[in-house]
Amino acid sequence: MILKALKETGDMTISYYENGMLQTFTGRYHNLNLLDQTLCLENDEKKRMIIHIAGIQHIH
Hints:
SH3 type barrels, mainly beta, single chain, globular, 1 helix, five-stranded antiparallel β-sheet
């Protein structure tokens, strides 16, 4: 599911759990680290967000 969504170009919004709370972040794919099992997104303001793959609930 995650790898299929990363093939799309442009912005994506990811809903994920962090510290027991549902968060959302909108940005473009920057990096996927399979060793740490994290996904890094970057938004228009060059802010990067690292999200644990296990916490991802939905990609839209």
